[in-house]
Design brief:
With about 140 residues, this protein is mostly beta strands. The protein is built from no helices and 10 strands. The strands form 2 sheets. Strands 1-2-10-9-6-7 form a 6-stranded mixed sheet, with no helix packed on it. Strands 3, 4, 5 and 8 form a 4-stranded antiparallel sheet that branches. The chain is elongated and about 50 Å long.
Length: about 140
C-alpha cells in the first residue's frame, strides 16, 4: 500500500508505504522482496511461525534495489526501540524477546523540488512500515 499525504508538511511531501505478507493455506509463493512494487519497502520473506527468541531477518528496498548501509528501526510491543543498519544485502536481523506486534520502519528523504496540490515542496520523505506478529 502507498499513500501520499495531500498537505505539505513544512516544505516536505510525506509518502507512506506499507507491505504485508499473505499466506493462503500453507503457500508462501510470491512472498519475495523482488515481488514488492513499492518504491520503498521493508519486510520479511519468512512469515511462518515467528517466535520470540528466534532470529528474524528483514529486507529493506529502495527504488527497486536493496538498501545497503541504511538505518532501520525495530519497535517492540512494549515500546522498546532499536536502530539497526542494513548489510550489503539490504538485510537487518534481530531476535525478539517478547511476544506481540513488532513494527519495522525504514525511511528515506529525496531532495526534489516541485508542486503538490498547488504548494511548493523541496523534499519527499518516504516511510515504509511492516508489522510482524511474534508468538
Amino acid at each position: 500500500m502507498q499513500h501520499t499525504v495531500k498537505d505539505i508538511y513544512g516544505t516536505m511531501v510525506l509518502d507512506y508505504n506499507s507491505s504485508a505478507n499473505i499466506v493462503v493455506g500453507n503457500k508462501l509463493n510470491g512472498n519475495l522482496s523482488t515481488n514488492n512494487s513499492n518504491k520503498i519497502a521493508v519486510f520479511t520473506e519468512n512469515t511462518t511461525d515467528i517466535r520470540k527468541n528466534q532470529k528474524i531477518t528483514a529486507i529493506a528496498i529502495y527504488n527497486n534495489a536493496i538498501a545497503k548501509s541504511q538505518k532501520v528501526k525495530v519497535i517492540a510491543p512494549n515500546g522498546w526501540e532499536k536502530e539497526l543498519w542494513t548489510n550489503e544485502n539490504g538485510e537487518i536481523s534481530f531476535t525478539p524477546i517478547w511476544s506481540g506486534n513488532y513494527m519495522i520502519e525504514f525511511s528515506q528523504t529525496e531532495k526534489k523540488s516541485g508542486e503538490h496540490h498547488g504548494k511548493k515542496y523541496d523534499e519527499i520523505w518516504k516511510m515504509a512500515t511492516y508489522q510482524l506478529v511474534v508468538n
